[in-house]
Amino acid sequence: MARFTRAGAVVGALTLAASLALTGCGDEQKKPEFVGGTSTDAGAVPDSAAPSTPGASSAPSGPALTLSPANDTKNKPVSTEISAKLPEGGKVSTVTLAAAGGGAVEGKLRTDGSAWVPSAPLKYGTRYTATVTATGADGTTSQGTSTFTTMAKPKSTIGSGLYLFDDKSYGVAMPVVTEFHPGIPKKDRAAVQKRMFVKTDPPQPGAWHWVDNGTQAYYRAPEYWQPGTTITVRIALAGVPLSNGKYGDIDRKATAKIGRSFVMKVDNATKKMSVYENGALSRTIPVSLGKKSTPSSSGTMVVMEKKESTVFDTRDDPDPANRYVTEIDFAQRLTWGGEYIHAAPWSEGVQGRSNVSHGCVNVSTANARWLFEKTRIGDPITIKGTERKIAAGNGWTAWSLSWSEFVKGSALPVPKGGSGPAL
Length: 423
What we know:
This protein has four helices and 26 strands. With about 425 residues, it is mainly β. A six-stranded mixed sheet has the order 19-18-17-25-20-26, with no helix packed on it. It has a four-stranded mixed sheet with strand order 2-8-7-4, with no helix packed on it. The chain has a four-stranded antiparallel sheet with strand order 9-11-14-13, with helices on one face.
């Protein structure tokens, strides 16, 4: 029976290893713009507000602006954003930020104009000068200037990970997966979520969902991603202060592609897997799922890892009946708890008729090879009709909830349908 142990999961995330450790079935485990977690969380940073010279067309004529950070502020986090108290009806027109003795810092305004976000973490122990120009409803301009100093590098940080890699192609159900160790306290999640930026091209709405005591957060759309989508992510946590005295460790970035649609659906009632390529049924495969004492999980999961050959070793299972060491071909991980799609020549005689596995999806060697050659990380599989449901966080379970349930896991309000392309 699959156990949700997740051994090695956080380590894999923190080192961004391209491969996750297997231990056994049923016992496992143009520059882009950015769109924030929701359109109401001020999480979007448009290209249109790149640094420019304030007052280029006319000198400021209105009252001086009050900036944040305030002038002569010290020990500011390197995640500091620039904001201004504006005259009624005014809006920021330009922002510049420069380090002492250095050039201008690149950055972008959030979509709602609430703050200007540097495109990379500021340097520790460095003095900066910010200049903001705003234009009022009557056309007059106002300007404010502030000089501040960032803090020294903190000694206590959280570890973080991003399960997305540059220039890789993923399946249509690949969520943006972030991990944190230790987990993010609940009262800090809104502030952290505001620093997690996602942009999709073509634009598609989306939302964040926190699971597993704050150690994971997923970003997905209401439906599977459109084939051909480009996903650009910045998890901008370097220097973000938390209530437990820790700070975010580093910024993580990735730009990846969504490939063709490849969807697997398994019905326990028929013991069959239906495979759809680009929406068309391409193959029906007999399966054997988990027996009643070790049932497979119902729900939507995604392929997390692929091993052409490996060894399942479950000798640490507390139930002697579930202990074994077996060589496995064409293994595709679905959960941290140890559920896989894999070749099971020993059960081919009952595949399509009865369930005998320890929780995995058993298929013939020929079908396992065919699937293995077709699938990508992030391809979805939906299993229905088994004795238990997939546990939240036991794998990349972003799609195991309906959209209405998924958005309840956001630390910030999510507009109906999800945050749109906020740039």
